[in-house]
Design goal:
Blueprint (H helix, E strand, L loop, with lengths): L1 H43 L3 E8 L5 E7 L2 E11 L5 E7 L7 H6 L1
Antiparallel strand pairs: 1-2, 2-3, 3-4
Organism: Peribacillus deserti
Protein name: DUF1433 domain-containing protein
């Protein structure tokens, strides 16, 4: 009987750790999504619509979506959550408008 209780306690501990890890991962994905939306609005003036958010094998987060005004313009915003959610790249199907930040630097 004592062995059953010990096994049950171990199971509960492992379940709690797994749930906590999944909650942390979801928090990272949710934050990355918001960073990508704000970045595309601030830098390019686009209303970015998110289709999917996922971890990559490289340990960063890819936020896939499109420009609300042009659904065919698929865009991927890469977020480095380990570096304070820094946007490390933007990939796109069509040309994006010039970055507002780059215009201001000229």
């Amino acid at each position: 009987m004592k062995n059953i209780i010990i096994v049950f306690q171990i199971f509960l501990i492992l379940s709690a750790c797994s749930t906590e890890e999944k909650m942390k991962e979801q928090e990272i994905l949710d934050t990355s999504e918001q960073v990508a939306i704000k970045y595309m609005k601030r830098e390019y003036g686009l209303d970015f619509v998110v289709k999917s958010v996922e971890f990559t094998p490289m340990g960063v987060v890819d936020v896939d979506g499109y420009d609300k005004a042009d659904k065919e313009n698929e865009i991927t915003v890469t977020i480095n959550q380990g570096d304070n959610y820094d946007v490390s790249g933007v990939g796109y199907m069509k040309d994006l408008p010039n970055s507002k930040t780059l215009k201001e630097a000229d």
